[in-house]
User: Fold these one by one.
Assistant:
Number 1:
Amino acid sequence: MVILLGLTAAALYGTADFVGGLASRSVRVLGVLTLANVAAVSVAIPAAALSAGQARLAGLAWGAASGLVGGIGLIIFFTGLASGPMSVVAPVSGLVSVVLPVAVALGWGERPGAAAFAGALLCLAAVVLSSSTGKQSPGSDVGPASPGRRWPGRAIGYGVASGTAFGLFFLLIRNAGQSGALWPVAAGRVGELVAILAAAAALRRSPLPRGTSRTLLLAVVGSGVIDMVANICYVEATRTGMFGLAVVLVSLYPGVTVLLARVMLGERLRWVQRAGLGLAAIGILLVSA
């Protein structure tokens, strides 16, 4: 079950990123993130209230903390994309976001079999390769682009910082999930919304998109709801199997985004991305063996 839920979460995360990325070509990133989180919160809270689970203080606290950290990670990540090469920021962020929680899982005593361990290593390599690209993030407004030469060291710093935040998100939302799934996820979305609104206030920019079409607004709302469902699948995955394995599988979401861009937009895949997708397929087979 952990494999199915983990891969489902990866597919949903990748789809949400693809839809949100398309929207960010016409709407500023802060606008996309704000509206997506408002949509997610408006769905998550009623769903949690109608569910059989109870709202426990510990779960809500862990969930809110995960959202705040995840929101900060998004801000750092998009700032890095605006001020440094995406081909450096994205892979470093993806790798660190996986290594941190997996190291914690190993410290907790999780020991996968030889085949699963080899598959996990291939999936880690796939995360880096599939997220490697030379394109700049369109529509980013979290931080100003640096003039002149772009230093790899700075890009690596943004990647490590955002990846650490994302890794902490995986850890915190996993702890929140021990108190149920829906209420911690709802609290997490509230926490992320608070972080995004605080960033908008600090930058003195309107957090809401203006003058956008109904189709575009629906796409942004859809990306937020899909991302919320992905969070639920991830939490359930950590409750049904090894935490480290769930994180590795979920981290394959960049490959889904790349595939959707190829199928829906006709974008060409670079050889490193094709290699990453191939390694991901082999890794999943080994993990499932």
Number 2:
Amino acid sequence: MDKNTKGKGLSRGEFLKLVTLTLTTLFVKACAKLGVNLPTETPDSGSVEVVSSPTTQPGDKPMTQVAFIKTDDRVQGIQQAIDLLGINPVEGKHVFLKPNFNSADPAPGSTHPDVLRTLVTKFWDMGASKITLGDRSGMGDTRAVMEDIGVFSLADELGFEVIVFDELGADGWELGITPDCHWELGFPVAVPPLNSNIIVQACCLKTHQYGGHFTMSLKNSVGMVAQMIPGDTYNYMTELHSSKYQREMIAEINAVYKCGLIVMDGVEAFTKGGPATGTKVDSQVVLAATDRIAIDAVGVAILRYYGTTADVARGKIFELAQIARAVELGVGVDSPEKIEIVTTDQDSEAYAEEIRAVLLS
């Protein structure tokens, strides 16, 4: 937090709250580095919760499935991919849908409107009790981005709620931190998704030219973190994008929440450039999984299959910084051998077999 916050329009109570947040963050970070586990409590109204990371260790994770549908039809592909997993994690639950609205650029620059419509309709059919969508844009005003994409009119039509994270107050953020955290003060995570019963990600398949290297489900979580908390001058996104540990910091966000379902629209992909524009290929695939590491690893294999940047192509997939750090924190599967790519038809299976070879190479 900015040490010069006091005296810049804050009340005494607001100033003390920010001081408390800073001291709490530094204390918990020190404890994490010393291996001291602190209890996580539900915060009182207006307080800040320190969200601890999972305790699952690498090597503990069982096999996980990634549904793989070769298609150029997003609607059909999403429906088939979810059905192929054979699960219904949304029945009777408040679903929080996290899209990729970094900008209003067309897919794969952002989540395609057909993806939103299909997922929301599918979740209502599967028995969801409530659906909320929210995000924070990194390359534009979030509300304007959502308006350009048509989110609000779609919400009126299909009956779901929309939250613009930029418009949350100071009490709309909870502080996340992990063992050996690379964030200087931790990272503020939006409260609404944490208060839902299940978080569902709708991510794209693309590279990231500004230090992330690739942006799929793990990187999509950055939209849940504040750029700045109202009343404070510290810029968390400046810290993220200027750090040599950017990719590790991306992974750390994912350690503080569970994701019940991920759907990746890979009908088109950026193999270079990104996240808004780039070298586009017709990759013709829709993926679904419950494991962020697994689906991103398969996504990286697809990018390598079509030819991608040196940063994404270098070394083994599970040695890439985003994935390696996520494995350390127990976010998901810990080796490519534990990923089972499942398909429905011969064309999908032939395509998947080529991607399996890249994944394991």
Number 3:
Amino acid sequence: MSDVYDATKQDFASARAAFDTNDFQHMNVCANRLMANVLFAEEDQKLYAIPGYFLRTVAGEFLAMREGDFAKELRSMAESFIAKLDIAFQRELNLTAVWEGYFEYRERERRVLLTPYERKIYKDNKTFSRKGFAYLTKELFEGDSLFHHQSALLTVIQVEADRLIRNHGAEKKDIALLLIWIALAGLNGYCLVECSSIDKEETAKCLKSKLMPYVDRIRNWYASSEEVPFTDGTSILCDLILAWRRYYVKYGEVGRTSGESERRVELPDEARKRIGETIAQALQKDLLEKHSKAKR
């Protein structure tokens, strides 16, 4: 039972060492490696994928930044979170510490990401953000847009949800929901490839059969009263991660740049205050390319 834990802890240590030397490309590689190794684990060990997912999230943010004072300010926050994540990553993962550590990091991060004008004008309004999330989830939970071969629903939801969180703050469950959406979007990209067909109706049916079980679970979880450590919500996230890794074994990177060849995205100065939107725009471009391939 210790083999998987030992292997994933080594992946974590390697990712942290890469972070310490500002090698965010290798940090991303190690985070993906950690999640991949959980694919070989037993069902009761699937929670080990969560530290890898958070490491990958942090690495992605830094890969989307230019070096400078802004990156240095955010780096100290990320360093604190990674240290807490490392302590929580025991044989019995301290899920509460993981989530609380991320929420603290996300709150500090979002305040840095605000422009001076936004920081002065916007006040926390989590009630408003909850209304926004209710609107965004309605189409995902009740409509069929997700199953259209050209749908960009998940990308748009991520952009809008990130904007709400950044400008107005959000409840912990809403922030967790966004992370689950991002994982669902990653899985959706692979499903588009597997379900690609000349017949659009058959493609839609295939997508629905693969994605709807997850959508149903997410809807039920979000409607529940579950609080931190979000045991059920985390289980959904783990299953999405592992489903994505299974598809990776079958299809590889599906048009995405991978491993050591992944390059840093250089942004204009003003874009450094918009990390979330920038990443979402990149995701949208990626999805559109996949949709285009699926139609051929």
Number 4:
Amino acid sequence: MKTCFKCNKEKELSEFYAQPGMKDGHLGKCKECTKKDVLGHRKANLKRIRAYDRERSKLPHRIAMNIARTKVFRKMNPLAYAAHSIVNYAVRSGKLKKPRKCSECPQTKMIHGHHEDYYKPLDVIWLCQVCHKKRNWKDKP
């Protein structure tokens, strides 16, 4: 058992992240408090963190990792890859019109096509990146 210095609650040691530099090998604040602090820091410094993330994504090993991850996704999800390709071609050829804003919020940047059914590739819902992630996580069991 260990007491979190942030919330002052006594919790199981498994509720603390491992930290080799600490005497008992675990961080002094619980996972829940750590997550709150990280989220608060991200919200307070969002512009700076996003700029850092953009620059970090340009590093050669990250580009290579992203290419490898994409190849694995395409191999594991051929139907999804085919649907994405069909939508992309339809938009470029003018067969399908991509709206200027998200269908669930007023966002106008980074609009993605979301497929409810990959067997109907041209039946898409246009969502911003944030709403698309929410929709995908909501669909997971």
